[in-house]
Amino acid sequence: MRTSTTRDKSVVGKTWFIRILAAAFWIIVWQLASMWLKQEILLASPVSVIKKLGELVVTADFWKSAGFSFVRIVLGFLLGLMTGALLAVLSYVSFLAAILLKPLITVVKSTPVASFIILCLIWIPSRNLSVFISFLMVLPVVYTNLYEGIRQTDRQLLEMAEVFGVRMGKRVRYIYVSQIMPYLLTGCRLGLGLCWKAGVAAEVIGVPTGSIGEKLYHAKIYLNTPDLFAWTIVIILISFLFEKLFLGLVRKIMQAIERR
Q1: Which residues of 103-137 are buried (b: 16+ CB within 10 A; e: fewer)?
Q2: Confidence at residue 93, expressed as pLDDT on a 0 to 100 scale
Q3: pTM, rounded to two decimals
């Protein structure tokens, strides 16, 4: 057991080392490209971007903007997750619901994000636009993955539970949860990536005051490339950290449900 644990830690350590090397490689490529162009407007160097990021982090305005966008995009993600899960269960239980929802989900998946943003600006204040757009991007992804996961649940296990008279609560806990777990994690992972991209895009077009999107818009208007890169890195970091924390929390909740 100790040997196996040591080997696992060694593999994890090597994996992280390789990832760090890969990131370092691309940062060097970025630096060389910036030096070759010699135009900060076209491509800011990593040094200037890190310097600008350091200047931003110590200001209150930075944290207000980051908090503004984080709260709204995460709210949109959670709403999309809950609605998608409920609709997936409804579609599994009711064939009519599945038929009625299919065209709607297809339209949401196929319509360009920019079209939704422009249309929604007519009805929704720009301050809350990122909530709705994030919700729309997450909904079809979660719905499709969970619905497929429920449909792919092992029929033999369900038949066995039926024969032995296992109550629905225990079926959900011991059969459905373990079966749909991979589909749920995949849906959340894809949804998180999409909601941040779409949510920030909505802010760039709607330009709500005090948002990350507003900062990106101003950086573009004034050709402030270091600012543009710095805020982009902030979005990537927030998205990455929230994804790791959220998916870890989902795994723990699912494991706790199975152990009860």
Answers
A1: eebeeeeeeebeebbeebeeebebebbbbbbbbbb
A2: 87
A3: 0.86
Q: How many CA atoms lie less than 13 Å away from 192 in the CB half-sphere?
A: 20
> What SS3 state is found at 221?
helix
Torsion of CA 207, 192, 90, 147, to 10 degrees: 140
The residue assigned the tokens 């200037």 is 48
Length of the chain: 260
Given a contact cutoff of 8 angstroms between Cβ atoms, the answer to whether 40 and 96 are in contact is no
The closest of 188, 211, 102, 185 to 137, measured between CA atoms, is: 188
pLDDT along the chain (260 residues), means of 10: 52 71 86 84 86 92 94 95 93 90 90 87 88 94 90 69 64 70 88 91 91 92 89 92 90 73
What's the pLDDT score for residue 1? 46
For the record, the structure tokens of 259 come out as: 């152990």
Sign of CA dihedral 162, 164, 168, 173: negative
Structure-token pair, residue 170:
């225990």
How far is it, in rounded angstroms, from Cα 203 to Cα 217?
9
